[in-house]
Design a protein that fits this description.
Length: 147
Amino acid sequence: MGSQVSKQVEKRKAIEREGKTLSDLRNSGEDYPGSDYHPSDRKNWMSQLNPEKVAIKQIVWPGTHDSATNKIGIPGITRPFAQCQSLSIYKQLVMGTRLLDIRVQEDRRVCHGVLLTYSMDVVIKDIKKFLSETQSEIIILEVRTYP
């Protein structure tokens, strides 16, 4: 368990370093791939794509890792090590995410390692709500099961 915690701590530090690097780049005025694209409506950003000019393989799909971990673990104890996202699936979709990484156990509960959170039904409900409000958006689900 100790090595698992130290791996998570190292991941958090790496994410913070990458975030700082990106922030420094942004503040320096330098461009990076995709920096010039700012959709006015993140909820419907795919509606601005022209399917006659853009092949699906040319799209850079904004996605989240361990997407359904916003309520995982015990706040202040295990949550800092297991929570990869702070927003619900619905809010991530509204913000522009279109690729979701979901890990579930056989009982259909979302997990991150040994920690569990809500049922996969909550994920499906959020996705259905989002899709009912949009017409042009595509969501890619990467669902993995863990024993």
